[in-house]
Amino acid sequence: QEHIGGVRNFFSKLLSPNKPLTKPDLEPPLNQMKLLLTSKNVSPKTAKAICDCVQDQLLGKQVGTLTGVKRAVRHALEDAIEKILRPELGNGRLSFQKGKSLDVLRGVVEKRGGVGMVGKQKRPYVICMIGINGVGKSTSLAKIAYYLQSNKCKPMLAACDTFRSGAVEQLSVHASCLGLPLFHQGYAKDPSAVAKAAIAKAAADGNDVVLVDTAGRMQNNLPLMKALAKLVTETKPDLVLFVCEALVGTDGLDQLTMFQKALSSGGHLRPIDGIVLTKFDTVSDKVGAALTLTHLTGVPIAFCGTGQKYNHLKPLSVPYVIS
After folding, report:
1. Is 116 exposed, middle or buried (0-12, 13-18, 19+ CB in 10 A)?
2. Is 290 left (phi over 0), alpha (psi -120 to 50) or beta?
3. Dihedral angle sign, alpha carbons of residues 298, 299, 301, 302
4. β-pair type (239-245, 274-278)
5. Helices marked H in 98-216
């Protein structure tokens, strides 16, 4: 609670039992809070948006006790950060682009029509994992598969990285460790055709979710980006998850923007639905990059990878960010 305590201390001189708080009252502590936020890797634009939201919440309030001040500040911060992490709640101040909430498990259950197992020949829920080279897409895919498997889903892994040597074998190791089926057709194949065949196989075998692994590609590699757009367009996934490292700063924003652009090329508009942040356990208290990525794109964070084990996956909660 050290950092939220520090923020609230900025406002400790704002006792105003007899008059409402004004903008001049709030300006000094808000400037201090903005500096603290930027020191935690929050972009200046996002820090300003958070401070503006806190100001909106506190303006005109009368607070007569230190406890009241601290409570009001915490509530205002929680509201601002929740609007960022859940873009569907966003407003003009905090959201450049209105997004949607993500509940992957609910999506799978609703697609199959309830709590029972999926019937044969019914199209499964399809999750497509995308991102640049070396950010941990395959491992993140395996973690999500484990999470779904632990909640009584029947995942199938689809090895659609037909480009990188060893990619199929890497996914095969994950499938073997988890006791899950793997669909693959080797290398030098059309990834779109492999993904469609995997979906058909999963439907026939009664698997209710297919997790599609794709080749890592740099955002400026046009041929590979076109191939990715083709895969996403032809397979029509229920969920497209962009995987990136937690402490990438503006690089992550550039990557996500270029992938979004690729998926909307050729007249097709298929937005990225969510972000998976890897290596989140190495970030320490600098969660600002995560806030900035969601704030500036409107894409919510679906999961954070917090270690090497399959169960090291969690959502990014408001209380965690604030603390």
Report:
1. exposed
2. alpha
3. positive
4. parallel
5. 104-112, 137-150, 167-178, 191-205
Task: Give the number of C-alpha atoms closer than 13 A to the C-alpha of residue 112, restricted to the C-beta side.
Answer: 26
- What are the backbone angles phi and psi of residue 197, rounded to the nearest 5°? -65, -40
Which residue is listed with tokens 């601290």? Answer: 70
Q: Distance (Å, rounded) from C-alpha 239 to C-alpha 182?
A: 19
Q: What is the pLDDT along the chain (323 residues), one digit of tens a residue?
A: 445 555 656 777 776 667 888 898 889 889 999 998 888 888 899 999 999 999 998 898 887 777 787 788 888 988 888 888 887 654 433 333 444 557 899 999 998 885 444 455 689 999 999 998 889 999 999 999 999 999 999 999 999 999 889 999 999 999 999 999 999 999 999 999 999 999 999 999 999 999 999 988 887 778 888 888 899 999 999 999 999 988 766 678 888 888 888 888 755 678 899 999 998 887 766 678 888 888 888 888 999 999 999 999 998 777 877 77
Tokens of 76: 């205002």
- Rounded Cα distance between 298 and 108, Å, is 23
Contact 206, 118 (CB under 8 A): yes
290, amino acid identity = A
The span from the CA of 55 to the CA of 100, in Å, is 25
Provide the whole-model pTM.
0.86
Q: Which long-range contacts (CB under 8 A, 24 or more apart) does 309-315 make?
A: 310/142, 310/143, 310/146, 310/177, 310/178, 311/143, 311/146, 311/147, 311/150, 312/143, 312/281, 313/140, 313/143, 313/144, 313/146, 313/147
The answer to whether 80 and 54 have CB atoms below 8 angstroms apart is yes
Q: Cα(247)–Cα(241) distance, rounded to whole angstroms?
A: 18
